[in-house]
Fold:
Amino acid sequence: MVGAPEVAENLMTEWLGLPALASAHGGQIDGLLGWIHIFMLILFVGWGGFIAYTLVRFRRSRNPVASYTGVKSHRSTYVEIGVAVVEAILLIGFAIPMWAARVESIPPAHEALVVQVTGEQFAWNVHYAGPDGKFGRTDIKLLDAQENPLGLDRTDPAAKDDVTNLNQLYLPVNRPIIVRLRSKDVIHSFGVPELRVKQDAIPGLTIPIWFVPTVTTAEMRTRTGNPEFQYEIACAQLCGLGHYRMRGFVTVQTGEEFQKWLEEQIALQSAPDPFK
Ligand SMILES: [Cu+2]
Structure:
């Protein structure tokens, strides 16, 4: 038998057609969305019934003269209080604790893969620290829109094994990921619907978000029956004229595949440029 939480989750993911779920915490979010839909449906039916009742009860043929005193009973007040209580429960009992758990229980950096993602008009710059776990120094003087959009100083020892990438975020499956979200210019928003992740990137702030991807891109292609399936990073804040083309992609791989990709990139990016 399915319990109440599963019903609320399935309501969202299956009945209401949310994108396929691919992160560990996403079920909780779908569950909450499901509960909100259930409560709103009850409210909708309740208020709709109330309107129908008043139309009949206070019809003109039965009430030829307007009443100047109106309703004396307090029943509707109690109903309103009841609705406010349910909404307070949703907010204080579910939404706030869930948010607090997301922002407070960030796993320690050594257990997770830490990636820096910097939004700019109109792209996502991805930066991995490499095996040393240290992000190389960045300097605004080295910034070059084409060659070095993050201003990474390759002479810094910590930067030797760093990997940067444009609009392509590679992640290992079933491992906590901490994305340190930043912005170079205006407010952007990092949204990946399948991962149930969405967070604004604010200039001047580094905002950590974390999640555990649970389904690789390859698995998702089989599951959805779409051989071209891609996890897409959609910028979810209108950030300028090119906002519509500010899309990135997340490729979720097995741990080994990801490791191999990272090593290839380190070799490729740390090699001296033959054209310079
Ligand atoms: Cu944007």
Remarks:
- The mean pLDDT is 89.
- The chain is about 35% helix and 20% strand.
- The first strand starts at residue 113 and ends at 120.
